[in-house]
Description:
By secondary structure, the protein is of the alpha+beta class. The protein has helices at residues 4-21, 36-44, 67-86, 94-101, 155-161, 164-169, 171-180, 185-194, 197-209, 213-225, 249-268, 278-299, 306-314, 323-327, 329-352, 357-378, 407-423, 427-441, 448-462, 475-488, 492-503, and strands at residues 28-29, 48-52, 55-58, 91-92, 110-115, 121-124, 130-135, 143-144, 151-152.
Amino acid sequence: MATVQEKLTESLEALKAYQDAHSDNLVIQGAETLGRTHTERLVNSGYLQMVVKGWYIPSQPGSEGDSTVWYVSYWSFVVAYLNKKFGGRWCLSPELSLYFYSGKTVVPRQLIVRSESGTNNILNLPFGTSILDIKASVPQTVYRETRYGVRLYPLELALLMVGPDYYRRDALEARTCLATLREVAPLMAVAIDGGHSTRAGRVAGALRSIGREEMADELLRTMRQVGYQVKEENPFEENVRMERFGMSPYASRIRLMWMKMREVVLRELHMEPVHREAAEVLAMMDETYVKDSYNSLSIEGYKITEGLLERVRRGDWDPEKDEEDKERRNALAARGYYQAYQLLKESVASALAGEDAGEMYAKGHQAWHLQLFEPCVRTGIIKASDLLGYRRHQVYIRNSMHVPLNPEAVLDAMETLGALMKEEESALVRAVLGHFFYVYIHPYMDGNGRTARFVMNSQLVTGGYPWVVVPVERRQEYMAALEKASVEEEIGDFARFVGRLMAH
């Protein structure tokens, strides 16, 4: 008779076989997919979680209550569920379509879906999310995005169909989408074919508001030439003129967020810089090293003692000769932090000697990150090639509604961040927003938080401000402020958090 463990192994093999045959499908539709016995066994052991009756997603035992499992599977579930319910005749609302086109990666609280077979009902989903499917027409042409298969209004039609309140309520998303347009002709064709003269006037006003006068003029001129009376209307509450257009939505979004957030940082932080000689700054970094590394590593979940940090700093840690050191994860992290800190000091010294601080970031951040994991390379745990360039896989932040950018978007986003760091005059803005956007993009599979704190402090000390140690005891407050900035695009809490640490 098979043991409990043998039965569970059999069920896990059935799950794996299904996923292998369905491109690592993250969604199990109905108990009949794997068989009722396998399904019940996997649910009871924690390897499957029920989303709604008859729908399951893979998980790990002990992950109950962890929202990460749900956010990882969210779009896969949505598409599978809606395809099953509506047979492919559905799409997101114009507003939610622009949400997607704008590069917003936060899992929406409520997904609004249109279908001619809609029921006008709300389906409640885990962690306060839901789907509202409304009985409404679907565009003749629906764009199916490539990553998940989400069905969207075509970009140009969505810009026309959203109401004026959308441009006020979701101004960032609207500006991002308008900035990504490479030509106005497709938008004109949709407006003319649909007879959308009033809506065309609104989009023309929105284009002019962000600095795309030529597009606005061409849209109005063409509509009038074919017989429409069009009155231009600016739906935005304020004009935000952009200098660069046609970029990826991620690049445009980050640039717009920076423009909005920098004003908040400047309003919240008033500390005057103090001139310090380079030797004094570097000595201060040496004095702060143990406290900083202890807290920074502890925030990331490493079990670090000050004794271990002193041992690493003295050079008493040797993984090539000491097998215990080779196997000690915490010691590897401590040694990597020490090496990265020494390289950071060299970068700071260069900036204090005259190198532009934004340029220091652009040139240094990848090298700082690499040093964090160099001991793992030396001991054979990680291949050096795995650390070259930015991540090539999706990453998730535990229990966060913010999903970092997809791998294909990271390079554009990081190049934009580098440009913004070099363009920004305020060291305080570079410090706060440099840190925030580093974790917002999450360019690496690991080490993003530590590197982001290096980015922040390198900008502070080269700008005449103190080095900030984020205490592990305030981790929850720190993470909550970053989460609010990522999900709600409100940087005030994080700016004030940094300000309070600077004041001590």
